[in-house]
Amino acid sequence: MYESLGVHGLALDTASWALTLFAFGLLAAELLWLWGLKRLNWRRIKEMLASYCTLVPYVLTELLTAGFWLAVYVGLAALVPWEIPTTWWSALAAVLLADLVYYWEHRLEHRVRVLWAVYHSVHHSSPDFNQSTAYRISFADHVVPPLFYLPLVALGFHPFLVLSGLIFILAYQTWLHTEMIGRLGWLDRIFNTPSNHRVHHGADPKYQDRNFGAFLIVWDRLFGSYQAEEETPVYGLATPLGSVNPLKVHFHEALALVRDLAGASSLKRLGAILLSRPL
What we know:
The structure is a single chain. The protein is mainly α. The chain has one domain. The protein is 61% helix and 0% strand. The chain is built from 12 helices and no strands. It has helices at 2-36, 42-53, 55-79, 88-111, 113-123, 150-155, 159-172, 187-190, 194-200, 218-223, 246-262, 267-275. Helix 1 (2-36) runs parallel beside helix 7 (159-172). The longest helix is centred in the N-terminal third of the chain and has 35 residues, at 2-36. The protein is globular, with a radius of gyration of 19 Å. The mean pLDDT is 91.
């Protein structure tokens, strides 16, 4: 099993690295494209730098929590009295199931205020949409999301296979953050593409809370959250952040949540605020 796991895990990890390298190449091409269109101005550059600034606490938190989550995943696997043999078919199943779990995790992040405020709003706070937006990620992304994928380990998938599948669908999304690539025809109907993901980052009422998928967009079609790109979206939050201060980028929605919680008059009201739909 472990020899097989190495082959299939390596294949997923290699694909993830290939996608990441492609995204870096796309970043260089995008910068040239923006420069050619005379859109690479100082305002946009400051927004890009604000996005990349979030990587520092994100990486530090990853280093601090990786060992803990690995122990949790491996510990759970040791308690499960069955296992799914690692083959090409089970590797594919692990990716597809991780993609499905991601859909619901992502949808909850948009529907439950505490998840939105504590970390996911950070990713949506830029008024621009380019490769730097992919890296505007909260450090808290390493704290809550790993919980959602534990059921896949409980099903019998090897924990490293689950983690490799998760890394793959996260790496896949990096290249989606661009306006340089237009609509892709039939691919837009099956996969998450730049066109589909532009909709997801739109603050327009018709685009809000749409297209939650990571690798496949078919989950959105199945569960009624799909929206095709029509007019160009207005990117960012419904109430614009209006700042490139890294601290405000990271904590603006969390501080608003804390203020509302401080004014709660009862435990019932406290729970209602935490679980309410994001403003």
